[in-house]
Design brief:
Layout: H1 3-18, H2 27-44, E1 65-70, E2 73-82, E3 86-91, E4 102-106, E5 112-125, E6 128-135, H3 140-157
Antiparallel strand pairs: 1-2, 1-4, 2-3, 3-6, 4-5, 5-6
Length: 163
């Protein structure tokens, strides 16, 4: 199967899944294709590293509103990029690596994802701090909503449109 055919078939299955119309018999094929699509994006992004450096999720550069309840106060900002595992933002101050802020992430469809996050990396850039956070406790439903959004976003940017 060629790349275009794979993407077309995956897009069709994904659309059915998002609409709640995926037949139970189609679910295994959809989950396998979803995993293959994610691995292809990871590979394309050059993120297929080994060991402790390995990333488990592809990232997309997209701004979504996020509210973080930090020790020094609430911070409203936008994501720089995000994945099924977490997101990066610019903050006015460094974050204590022991801190576990609450986060509210607002998806374009109006859905809010709420959970606790932890800092996985940070560095100073000019007078701001770029911090990357990992989700600690999203529900299965929230994870599915986020992954659905990420797949939608990635499929839109693949550049192959259905006939």
């Amino acid at each position: 199967m060629g790349v275009i055919q794979f993407i077309d078939e995956f897009r069709e299955l994904h659309t059915k899944a998002r609409q709640g119309k995926l037949a139970e018999l189609e679910r295994p094929a959809y989950m396998a294709a979803r995993e293959q699509f994610a691995r292809a994006l990871l590979n394309a992004q050059g993120l297929m590293l080994d060991g402790a450096e390995a990333r488990r999720h592809y990232r997309v550069a997209h701004q979504l509103p996020v509210e973080l309840q930090m020790a020094y106060g609430n911070v409203w900002t936008n994501t720089l990029d995000l994945s099924a595992g977490g997101f990066s933002v610019m903050l006015p101050h460094a974050v204590d690596v022991k801190e576990r802020p609450s986060a509210l992430l607002y998806l374009p469809d109006g859905t809010t994802l709420a959970g606790t996050v932890r800092v996985v990396s940070q560095f100073q850039r000019a007078d701001k701090h770029r911090a990357s956070f990992a989700f600690l406790d999203l529900t299965e439903r929230e994870s599915d909503l986020l992954e659905g959004f990420l797949i939608d976003f990635a499929l839109e940017r693949v550049g192959i449109t259905p006939p």
